[in-house]
Automatic annotation (TrEMBL):
GO terms for biological process: intracellular protein transport; vesicle-mediated transport. Keywords: Cytoplasmic vesicle, Golgi apparatus, Membrane, Phosphoprotein, Protein transport, Transport. Belongs to the adaptor complexes medium subunit family. Residues 168-421 form the MHD domain. Signal peptide: none annotated. Its main location: membrane. InterPro entries: Adaptor_comp_med_subunit, AP2_Mu_C_sf, AP_mu_sigma_su, Clathrin_mu, Clathrin_mu_CS, Longin-like_dom_sf, MHD. GO terms for cellular component: clathrin adaptor complex; clathrin-coated vesicle membrane; trans-Golgi network. PROSITE patterns: CLAT_ADAPTOR_M_1, CLAT_ADAPTOR_M_2, MHD. It is a peripheral membrane protein. Subunit of clathrin-associated adaptor protein complex 1 that plays a role in protein sorting in the trans-Golgi network (TGN) and endosomes. The AP complexes mediate the recruitment of clathrin to membranes and the recognition of sorting signals within the cytosolic tails of transmembrane cargo molecules. It comes from Erpetoichthys calabaricus. It is found in: Cytoplasmic vesicle, Clathrin-coated vesicle membrane; Golgi apparatus. This is AP-1 complex subunit mu-2.
Amino acid sequence: MSASAVFILDLKGKVLIYRDYKGDVSMSEIDFFMPVLMQQEEEGLLCPLISHGKVHFLWIKHSNLYLVAATTKNSNASLVYTFLYKLVEVLTEYFKELEEESVQDNFVVVYELLDELMDFGFPQTTDSKILQEYITQQGNKLEVAKLRVPTTVTNAVSWRSEGIKYKKNEVFIDVIESVNLLVSANGNVLRSDIVGSVKLKVMLSGMPELRLGLNDRVLFSLTGRDKGKSVMMEDVKFHQCVRLSRFENDRTISFIPPDGDFELMSYRINAQVKPLIWIESVIEKFSHSRVEIMVKAKGQFKKQSVANSVEIMVPVPSDADTPRFKTSVGSAKYVPEKNVVVWTIKSFPGGKEFLMRAHFGLPSVEKDEEEGRPPITVNFEIPYFTVSGIQVRYMKIIEKSGYHALPWVRYITQSGDYQLRTNA
C-alpha cells in the first residue's frame, strides 16, 4: 500500500501528531491539506482523496479529528483507507473515545502504536489485543516492554498469543441477524434481505483448533443431505483466523481463534421475508383543525417467541400540537423535533395484536401537504430466534492437552432498516 506518512489533525488542520515512514514527503506538505479541503467544501465537490502537486492525501474524519495518509505513489487506496479505519479502531480500544483530548493526553502511546502498526509504509500488527500485550498506557513502562519481542511477531498465528490459560474453558456463540425490509402502502414487500453475523467470545486455554458447522445449503448439497433445513448464504466474509482454502474445498469453517470477543463471520441472505411486526395505520383529518392516527401492530412470528424493546415510530404532520394518546399496551410519546410519535412496547409476544390511538390539534390554516409522508419505522429484538433458520449444528474444540470445553449458542433477530410506507 506504501503510505509515506500518517498525520492526525484537529478540525482547524493543526498537526497533533504524525509519523514519517519513508522520508520521501516533506512534512510541510500537510499545510496544504486544509486549504484544499475547505475549497472543495465551498465548491460542493468534497473528495476523499486530495492532491497537491505530486503528493496525494487520503483522509477520513472521526469525531473532531482528521486522519490523513500521505503518499507520492500510486498506492492501493482501499488498503490505505482500511488502515486508517483500523487505526481509529485500535486507538478507540486504547482510549475508549478517540478525540483531540485523548490524543494530546496519550501522545507517547500513540507514537508507539504508529510505530508498531506500520513499518516503512506497510501495515504490521493491527490487532489491538496483541498490541496491548506490549504497549501499555503507562508511558514509563514502554521502554522496558519494548525489550520483549511478542510471540506473535514470529508466530504464524499473529492474532493469538501462546500460554493462555483458563480455569474453565468455554466458547459463547452469538448468531445475530438483522432484517432489512421495505413494505409499500398497499402491503407489498418491495425489498427484503437478512444480514447476519456470528460473534464469538472465546475463553479457551492453549492453542485450540475450532470447527464450526452450520446448516449451509452448499455443504448439504455436497454431502447429499436434505436441503429443506438449510440456508443459502451470500457475501460471506471471515475473520483472518479462518482457513479459507479449507472452506473453499469442503465448506468447513476451521480456525484457531483470537482470545476474547471477535466477529468470526458475516453473511447476507436474499430472501422474501414476511414482516415480523406488521403495521397498519389509518389517518383521519377533521375540518383542518385536528387529526387522529390509529396504528395497529401485529406480531407475525411464532407464538412462543417474544420481541423485546419494540419501538414503532409513526410520522405526524410538522404543524401538529396538543398530543393525546391511548394505547392497549406500552406507552406513546410525541417527539416534536423529529415529527414522530414513538410507541414503545417492552414485550411483544408472537401472534398478539395491539392498538395505539393518537390525537393532535392542527393550526387553523393548513399547509399544502403533498410532500409525501415518511414511512413508519420499527425497532425490535427477538431472542432465541433466527428469521433465516440458520443453525449451529456443532462446535468441535480440539486442543493437544485434551481438555473439555463447553460451547454456548444464542440466537437473536433484530430490526435493521425496517420501514413500512403509509397512505397519506
